[in-house]
Predict the 3D structure of the following.
Amino acid sequence: MVLWQVPYRYMPQIERADYVKILERVADGSATDQEIMQYNFWITVVQEKGASREEPLMGNKAQLEQDILTGILLEIHQKPVAKPYKLWKSISIAASILLISGLAFYTFNPNPNELRPGFPKTEIINDILPGSEQATLTLGNGQKIVLDGVVNGKIAEQAGISISKTADGQLVYSVTEVAGKKDVIEADAMNTIATPRGGQYQLNLPDGTKVWLNAASSLKYPVRFSARQRLVELTGEGYFEVAKDPARPFKVKTGTEELQVLGTHFNINSYTDEAARKTTLLEGAVRINSKSWSQPIVLSPGQQAVVSNQGLKILKVNTDEIIDWKNGNFIFQEEPLESIMRKVARWYDVEVKYEGSPGDLTFTGVVSRSKNISAMLNALDKTGKVHFKVAGKVVTVLQ
């Protein structure tokens, strides 16, 4: 059965099952160049239909995106599928996005491709590679181990805990023996793993908890957790999958906040250069205590606690966007340019400068974190609303 056949002379035909696969592959970043080209052509047609209306009739951006999504569903003549959630997630990521060479960006503007006369084009004097698996482990005795520079296998042992580096770039702590008196004393020592700008890393703690660290982040934790609690300290951003242990609650300190969980999946963004600290729950439940408010708050899955100078807000969010970095992508949903460029600075280890004010531009899109910086910036450049110059380790935003 033909999925759709629109009245455009160069539009290819495609079977429904094949199109569903393309949507899923675009969403998880595994689409081929040919699949991206097919998808790009389809989304372009849908956007052109929506863009034909006059600005006063368009309504707000959310309504426009919903109209575009509705257009996709109508053209597909969507029927029930085996994995409706996965399909919906794929389409929701795709809606209102124009894919260009495997990247996606869209700006809410009546003429998004209109260029200002004499406006400079993006200039890449030297390209910059994306970040990679990099981290430094500092043991309780002060010894530093550069993890991306050591061979795989056992790298240290403390308090009956073996520390190993795996072939796929993970740091694994595992119990090797029952702790003796000496081990109990050593267990009070604190280890710290830190990623640089342009780095990320994953570690498995002795209790089975898995932690992913984003660029420019660090985690401080004891060699052995105590019998009453599991306490760690985070700076930057980390994603946690906490092993269940009701007798020993897992706690995370981030400056003025402390999270307490029994077994859950959550993400914490506590970068000091961001205006707010954000805790997002994906699974389970967390309780957050802070000096900033008198009573603890409890998050449900899909909720995000945002703490800033303006106080505390609880939001409902798309968790796929929150852990995009952990899954190898940048996902932007109406994200301000300055916020995007802070992520670019951390992942590509560059300094960002602005010629003029960044304004109130926002972007929606999907970009693989495995791409060079040129791919990211050229995708933004295609919108016609912002351009860049890359020289050395400096990215200048041209306004």
